[in-house]
Target: Aminotransferase class I/classII large domain-containing protein
Amino acid sequence: MKKVVASSLYEHSNQYPPMMGVPELRQAIAAHSGRHAGIPVDWQSETLVTSGATEALAAAFLALLNAGDEVIFFAPLYDSYLPMARRAGAVPRIVQLHPPGWSVDAAELEAAFSPQTKLLVLNTPHNPTGKVFSAAELQLIADLCIRHNCLVLLDEVYEHLVFPGTQHISLRSLPGMAHRCLRIGSAGKTFSFTAWKVGWLSGPADMIKAVAKAHQFITFTVPSSLQRAVAYGLDSEQPFFCGLGSVLQQKRQLLERQLSEIGFKVLPADGTYFLVANFEGLLPEGSSEDDVEFCYRLTREAGVTLIPVSAFYADRSEAPRTLVRFVFCKTDAKLQAACDALRAYFGKRS
Model:
């Protein structure tokens, strides 16, 4: 893919590419959707290339939401969702995922819908928890969206980062959902090329047309050489991204085993490269230290930086107080060094 970028700079024009994306990539996105999600897509009217998945989110919010529209989110949630939805004038409605399995309460979800509900945002596989929504949960969401005539924005950037034995199912593949769902994909996550900032949307032509109007005035287009390389990758590098789940599961197991030995309680997950763990058992007796304070202390004293899970909540008072997020898309040597540092630190303190 890197060679395709280099050759494209010399063999093709370096002027603005088409606003919607180069045909090669849009065709590859459509083929990828049919091949891996079982969802047929017309590349000419149902695809849009964006400057990463975050721009896809921003353009979708600006295109689909008016002031006062309500948007349903699941918490914990990716940090850009709320500010971007609010920038579009929308009103967030938060539904909690309940640890340790990050389950969805059907009654809580149903209560979040109202006559003002315009959009539901679903991120699966999920950041920061690693949860992959089950078929039953997806059907529940689909039924409620159909009943309330609600649109859905599907953040599926981790679609290939699923552990063996678990299947990622796109909500758009369920009956009655194809015409109301937009799917977001990411070359950064699929190929571990986050610096390239190439993302895409696929979905109904009328929704894509609306999002394209916002995209036009946010970034207009995406570097053509990178687009051609991603097109090549989607078509020709399937063994790489289809094998990510197994590789990441091995890394998670390496980390999980040692964290458990140190005293963390690791929560379950079925995908992504995130691991959430409870550190309550590592606190001194009587300590009231929360996740933010714990992460500051580990950074300063152990040389290992974690992310407090409360950072992924709109209201920290609703967040668990003793959960932290690890990221294990690192070399085994770096993961081992982090475990060694934590073991040494907590050993000294015990």
Notes: The chain has a mean pLDDT of 97. The longest helix spans residues 244-262.
